[in-house]
């Protein structure tokens, strides 16, 4: 590890790596080998094929942009709701299709979680797998184009085009942990002894004005254009997550950066601890503002040795998208994909308000206009989204019919 040096304020990239001495989990998967009870099946092969097609589409679009400028990219029709004249006339305008930078494959379709000019937020409670998940996305961004054997924990991540760079910022971990994390990223990306010069990673823990430091690195004219930005600990980039004005200003600024640079950004933010909100409830005004502005928000929870990803607020994903999971491999000493699982049914509330109780007492003795019969316990349970036992517990007059069908 002595050959690794974290870039200082003037450095442009990492200058070391860990040789890939561990067996590659995807190569094992090709031969039908199961690693740490993680089953790699035909589904994995289909995912690789879909990701390869996405890489090819990205390469075609990138080549067109490089040859004749941004307007050479494929175009799509949509209404410009910000232009009053065009809105009144009903005319359509043309703009380039935004590149999918991070996505998730479901039913043969890659749904976007981040696009150029957008922000993706990852949240979890302390020690909840946020850094590991972010590292897998960074590995996907720095992988060689066409290399589909990089385990990005089930996500599709667009590889960095030639001549661009990927920026990785760590605001939380110690210098040693930061170095270990970067080694793990490089190893996951299958670089072996090669040097990924397009990965520019920085340890910001000792920098006072981190927001300014990031801006300087983003807009340094001596450095290549930016493909993607990854910030592990966006809360540490600002003075206070509970200051509304600061939160609004920060969100507006990073969105402006992404649009100016035509890149994507993935940020990590802590969730409130137990008793201060449910899963996906992020900290402070900064969390609330990011939830409103982010292209997508995924939340990670830990349950029975399995990390579970919920797609909380994602603009372009289907509502029936199942949970994505990953586990820690003792063999590879890192997180590995564990596939989708169906969401567990949410328990129905067992309590009713006083008003609802009075309503149920009346309904139990009145005629349902649709069935021309008295309301049944089962029907009322559906209407009030509670169990039949809860409805049965509401006392009514003796002549009430007790039909529970």
Features:
405 residues, alpha/beta, Rossmann fold, 2 domains, nine-stranded mixed sheet, 11 helices, 23% strand, elongated, disordered N terminus
Strand content: 15-25%
Biggest sheet, strands in spatial order? Answer: 8-7-9-10-5-11-12-13-14
N- to C-terminal distance: 69 Å
Could you name the CATH class of the largest domain?
Alpha Beta
Structural class: alpha/beta
Helical proportion, percent range: 25-40%
* Count of helical stretches: 11
The count of domains is 2
Reading the helices and strands in chain order gives: HHEHEEEEHEEHEHEHEHEEEEHEEHH
What's the Cα radius of gyration? 25 Å
If you consult CATH, what is the topology of the largest domain?
Answer: Rossmann fold
Could you tell me the mean pLDDT? Answer: 76
Q: Give the overall form.
A: elongated
Low-confidence stretches: 1-40, 64-87, 398-405
CATH architecture of the largest domain: 3-Layer(aba) Sandwich
Superfamily at the CATH H level of the largest domain?
P-loop containing nucleotide triphosphate hydrolases
Sheet with the most strands, sense and barrel status: 9 strands, mixed
